Amino acid sequence: MRVLLIGAKGLLGQALAATFSTEDLVAVDRDVIDITDKVALQKFCHEVRPEIVVNAAAYNAVDEIEKNDEAAKQAFVINAEAVGYLAKASIENKALLIHFSTDYVFDGAKDSPYIEADHPKPISVYGRSKLGGEEAILRLAEHGLKYYIIRTSRLFGKSSGAGKKTFVDIVLEAAAQKSELQFIDDEIASPTFVSDLAMAVKEMLMSRPAFGVYHRTNDGYCSWYELAKTVLNESGAYSINHATPDRKYINLRPIASKDLPRPARRPAYSVLQSTKLAPLRHWREALREYIISNHL
Length: 296
Ligand SMILES: NC(=O)c1ccc[n+]([C@@H]2O[C@H](COP(=O)([O-])OP(=O)(O)OC[C@H]3O[C@@H](n4cnc5c(N)ncnc54)[C@H](OP(=O)(O)O)[C@@H]3O)[C@@H](O)[C@H]2O)c1
Description:
The protein has helices spanning 11-19, 38-48, 62-67, 69-92, 125-141, 167-177, 194-207, 224-235, 283-295, and strands spanning 2-6, 24-28, 52-55, 96-102, 146-152, 155-156, 180-184, 192-193, 212-215, 238-240, 248-255. Helices cover 40% and strands 18% of the residues. The strands form 3 sheets. A 6-stranded parallel β-sheet has the order 2-1-3-4-5-9, with helices on both faces. Bound molecules: NADP nicotinamide-adenine-dinucleotide phosphate. NADP nicotinamide-adenine-dinucleotide phosphate (NAP) binds next to helix 1 and strand 4. Pathway: Carbohydrate biosynthesis; dTDP-L-rhamnose biosynthesis. Keywords: NADP, Oxidoreductase. Its EC number is 1.1.1.133.
């Protein structure tokens, strides 16, 4: 299977590159091809002639995009317009396009998990830019584009080089330096291990379900506070809110999102339910594996 992976140096991109390394893989990032350059992208895709195009490129700086007009413009170019270019190049090469989207396309007002058919209603500029990417694909689906739009949430995993740190690593670093930590307790979603997501993508390529929108996250859900607490417990190095010998004491407090003002609004509840495919393993099990193999 000839696979063109775009955004290969990002957090998810690195996990996808590892998972697809046994395939005929061309893994690139912005230094090789900038997806916002329509002509260069089209030429590059014609040269590579992929059967599968996996787009893990995105502009994800949620707060920067909200407060800075230039960043917002960039977000729409990368997350929406360029996705249209990729979709067009995929049709021209008869390739299947796999694209990632986010729980932030929903407003969070629902009190049960969002299913694929729920109507998106983003409450941030980032969310609107990602919805723009979904719409660009759906427009070309009417012209024969083969596609999977995969919505996911709260990615964690190992990221080296230019890849960014995720919440799990940020919590462990903060706990090593401080003894008082506080995290938001009223934003609920599903943490997702990038290696599990990458494997789930590979499985979709084997089983080839119908083209469309899919929800792929680890099973279960939690707040940021509960995730932080689980991370600290799993690391085995900290005792939380009560002193224990041989472990560093951490005073861990839940806070409300209104007490941590940030430029962009986040959905209060954005659990994604998969009605089309079997759920992935529980996030606690995936987190344990990640911490054991990277932090112990
Ligand atoms: N992270 C999460 O928690 C999360 C949650 C839900 C959904 N998602 C979705 O999952 C996907 C992967 O996210 P991620 O967290 O892995 O992203 P990431 O770590 O920010 O990686 C994105 C990659 O895309 C590259 N890129 C950006 N603009 C590009 C361009 N114009 N041309 C080519 N490459 C470009 C970036 O390169 P530079 O470093 O040079 O910019 C970076 O290597 C995205 O679609 C995202 O919306 C992520």
